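Homework help board

Subject: predicted structure for assignment chain

Our instructor gave us this sequence and asked us to write out the predicted structure in token form, then describe one feature. I got the tokens but I'm not sure how to describe them. Can anyone check?
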Amino acid sequence: MKSKAIVVLVSVILLASLLLTACGTKEASPADTIIIGTTDKIASLDPADAYATRDWEIIKNVSDGLVNWKPGTTDLEPVLATDLGTISEDGLTYTFTLKDDIVFGDGTPLTATMYAAQLNRLLTIGPSCPNDVADALAIPYIKSITAPDDKTMVFELTSPVGYFLNILATAPFVASLPSTFPADECVLYPEGPIYGTGAWYIEQYNPDEQMVFKANDKYTGKYPAKVDQIIARYYSDPNTMSLAVQSGEIDVAWRFLSADQISELEGIEGLNIGMIDGGGIRFLQINKTMAPTDDPNVARAIAASIDRDEISDTVFGGQVAPLYSMVPPGFLGATDAFETMYASPNLDLAKEFLADSGYTADNPLKLTVWYPPEHYGAATASWMQIIEKQLEATGAIDVELQAQEWSTYITALVGGESYSVSVLGWFFDYPDPSNYLDPFVYNKGMGNNLTAPAEGSLTGVPINEKAGELVDLLTAADVETDTEARVELYKQAQDLYAELAPTIPLFFEAEHVIYRDNISGTADQATPETLNIGGNVFFTYSLLQKSK
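My token output:
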């Protein structure tokens, strides 16, 4: 891992906070400062490397891209570009014109030549960075990035991509400063200050403690900062963060508090709780090339046995939502395909599937189910035990749960050879149904092996005719630019996906933000009651306001 030395600078505010804590008292943040608590730790701040949701949130608050999602929505709008670009008739060329007089927070002018050179880091050093975000979001799509002049940027694609603008809205495609992120090196933790073209710059930070964001006085965009300073403070313990927002030590608590902690905060005077339909999903992964789950009836029996409401109500107090497609509600073309096909829980149907393959009470299916006990939260073991009970309620399945340490677990799953059923989670890279379906079908499907990788193929080779039909539907949707036509393709794809069941969706998680009465969003943007966090689940710091 290559990085520059981290300069740890302790701000006056942090020092005062520590002193007050030592005395057993808390002091509210100043009027020109908003303090956000989080349990998300920084993993990387390099746009060519960062892949975690928290890292993307920071990067996108500090720097802009050509386009972005309107706060609180999944609608796109131009940011550094004058418009949403011009697309060639064959769908292979996207051309953008930069707005005038764009400068970084240190005063460095942004030119298209500089911007193109920085984005080319994705195609050159990106694959050598620890997270290799380039192989997911750049290399499969982009043939070249050029700047014919200082105002124009041109993207040549390897093939048409119906959702390419959504990809451009992600953090890897922001404008970054060459002096901070050199062309030949991946820098996960650059020395501060860190300047971008956005409403904020990072004055100083310590990944284990906090980040200090200052309003960028060089910013000329649509969403200028409403306060002078934002402090993002890291908490390793969510209980401590919960107490901090109650006491007024922090103004906002944003990711992650448990269902029990959220319930405890409800009704406390001075606190508000905003709930955002989240993009994080949980699902069972079914290995299609390993016995016994290579039998299609086994996956269908599992799908018919699951009672998602019981999981939600018993373990999470109703604070997660049952999920009946890999595409969550609210996303383009989302359906309830698994509910339509299996009407789960339907034990009679499950028994029929099992009996068709010779599994009965006298000859039960022996099923080993893997799960990581901590990676997806402490409640994972509880809901896995409920799934065990539900499967065994068929009378023809014997379940063995196996808890595995995460690093061992994920290596085996991606390899796709050491398990038959497992549990995984997913959070979208960009808010489009393709990002909830393609990764679980193409090139081994994250380990379910519905397709086999093949050199020179973006999708891999389907294992059977039905899998081939699904690949055809998804690849057609990938290049389709007409929204209504894409919706129809994704509806068909979800039906076929449910029939094949390479994964079985379980639930999706809401995001919660806890904030004090004197903190608000901006009323002319979406969801002011949740601080303008919405469908894209990105937190736009510049819309935060603070009253006395």
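Reply (TA_rk): Your tokens look well-formed. For the description, you could write something like this. The chain has two domains: 12-270+517-546, 277-509. That's the kind of observation they're looking for.
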